């Protein structure tokens, strides 16, 4: 059976971590890689990946290396980070040569729900106004609207089922 790589994206506070964890628990052999966790590995000299091309490239290089290692050992990989379809094509083209299926999903929710979820996070994790900026960015990206999954009225288990079963989230080269 072919392994899968799942890219779980969306604005801050939309439920990427919750969904990614639930998805990883449903798959027999899986690993869950948080892009945020990878981006915070540098202890000093840390830069925000949305403000530094070098920081963004470093996160991607680490995501790719980890993904390739886990695929080599027969794991499905779930990557949770704020990314676009274009990011995958620019920073991760070598993943397309692996014998894997790749799925890309942009979790989406009502703006009010999204903003309120962000407010429930710890103060140092809140993104505030950046939530609205990210929402605008996702809506303006071309070619990724078919990958949106509105989770406003869905339970996490239903979101996971949709991600696993829907062929429309498959990425074609």
Automatic annotation (TrEMBL):
SUPFAM superfamilies: P-loop containing nucleoside triphosphate hydrolases (SSF52540). This is AAA family ATPase. Pfam families: AAA_33.
């Amino acid at each position: 059976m072919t392994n899968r790589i799942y890219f779980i994206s969306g604005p801050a506070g939309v439920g990427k971590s919750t969904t990614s964890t639930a998805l990883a628990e449903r798959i027999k052999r899986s690993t869950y890689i948080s892009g945020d966790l990878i981006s915070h590995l540098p202890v000093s000299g840390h830069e925000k990946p949305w403000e530094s091309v070098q920081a963004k490239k470093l996160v991607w290089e680490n995501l790719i290396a980890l993904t390739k290692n886990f695929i080599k050992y027969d794991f499905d990989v779930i990557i949770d980070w704020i990314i676009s379809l274009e990011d995958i094509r620019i920073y991760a083209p070598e993943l397309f040569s692996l014998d894997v299926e790749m799925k890309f999903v942009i979790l989406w929710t009502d703006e009010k729900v999204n903003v309120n979820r962000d407010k429930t996070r710890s103060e140092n994790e809140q993104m505030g106004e950046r939530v609205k900026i990210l929402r605008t960015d996702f809506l303006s990206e071309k070619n990724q609207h078919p990958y949106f999954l509105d989770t406003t009225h869905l339970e996490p288990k239903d979101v996971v089922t949709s991600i696993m079963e829907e062929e429309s989230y498959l990425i074609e080269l």
